[in-house]
Amino acid sequence: IGTSATIETAWEILRPGGLALVIGMPPGREKIPIRAGGLFLERRLAGSVYGGSNPREDIPRLLDYLKRGEFQLDSLVSEELPLDDVADALEALAAGKGARHVIVNQR
After folding, report:
1. pLDDT tens for residues 50-63?
2. What distance in Å separates the CA atoms of residue 42 and residue 19, rounded to the nearest whole number?
3. How far is it, in rounded angstroms, from Cα 79 to Cα 74?
4. 60 by DSSP, 3-state: which?
5. Longest dimension (CA), the chain
């Protein structure tokens, strides 16, 4: 999960020669303190954008899985909020509360 504390912990517990792949991004200007000595143990820290996916191919495939009931999307949603509460969802996101908040436009 993309918090600086999680990334720092992943670096600290990484075995020599290991790779920590960061999924999720802390605020762009936030600095992550890591001990330089780990570099000499051939540890690696990397980030991933969309898990290395190809959206043009992967999104239609995921939609097909969803239609066939092979992909359970509901379990990935932490909370559904009305459009009026979008500020609350952004605050929760910034605080690292919940995995996914879905904004619902209720008419």
Report:
1. 777 888 999 999 89
2. 9
3. 10
4. helix
5. 58
What residues does 21 pair with on adjacent strands?
46
| C-alpha of 78 from chain center | 13
pLDDT at 104 over 90: no
Residue 71 CA, chain-centre distance (Å), reads 19
Q: What is the pTM of this model?
A: 0.52
CA 3 to CA 5: how far, in whole Å? 5
**Cβ contacts of 89 within 8 Å, gap of 6 or more:** 79, 81, 101, 103
Mean pLDDT of 14-28: 88
Cα torsion 36, 26, 57, 65 to 10°: value is: 110
The stretches of the chain forming alpha helices (DSSP H) are: 4-13, 55-67, 86-95
DSSP summary character for residue 28: T
